[in-house]
Amino acid sequence: MEGFPTVLYKPSLQIMKMKAKRLRPVLLLTACESFGGRIEDALDAACAIETYHNFTLVHDDIIDKADIRRGDATVHKIYGINKAILTGDVMLIHAFQLLNKVPRDKHYQLIELFEKTATEVIEGEQYDVDFEDVQEVTLDEYTNMIRLKTSVLLAASLKMGAVLGNASKNDVEKIYDFGLNLGLAFQIKDDYLDLFGNQKTFGKRIGGDILQNKKTYLLCTALKKADANQRKQIFNIFDMKDEEKKISNMLAMYQSLDVHTETERSMEAFDEIERKSANYFLKIQHFLIT
Fold this sequence. Notes:
Blueprint (H helix, E strand, L loop, with lengths): L5 H12 L5 H12 L4 H26 L3 E2 L2 E2 L1 H5 L1 H19 L4 H28 L7 H26 L4 H28 L2 H4 L5 H4 L5 H9 L2 H11 L4 H14 L2 H19 L4 H8 L1
Antiparallel strand pairs: 1-2
């Protein structure tokens, strides 16, 4: 992405060049090739998906007031909030421009899927923001939020690749369902690493979700397992101002409730679902969640 004024495009180039797994375009290209399609026919769609994903990260970091992304300073931290918002906007437009280059016989189907998915991701983000203003959400409410915010984009990446690879309608729907489960596993792992991961490898501040009172799989599980007194303690932690104390107190609560073990079991359960539903994507699945 290049153009004038350069201050608009420079941040987008910066975030696109950051070290990342490029999981969504990898899923799309691999799905296309797996069903006999040509990688060349899927490159524009893959670039569109990655550009859209990075647009969401730019705006997500603004909403979360995050200072670190992939181990580096976030776009709004370097360039300011106003420039970051505009950079995200132009990235969103560029994603649609890239998708307009897909083969004409697949154009309508892919645009329709992309529009639906892009809307669902924003809906999921709104749920995530809304959850910050309530004390508690159920696991079902949380699962619906991450299905929209995270899973549908992974699922759409696979589905686009399958469509471009001329997969059957049945296979296209199966691989989409597989992608939804993959996304759930990925987000639960992300929640887990936010507290139990290593900041250098995780690329974000450890405990960031706790500081923002984000409703995560760990928190929903803790509230489900906690007794009345423990629930009161959890809600009191929400109001703590000392950041390090807030993180350490919530970590101690999670450990007392054995939340990390419960979360690990859930990740293993999703692994099993994926193994049964899409054996030919096992290698990608393990690359994603390890």
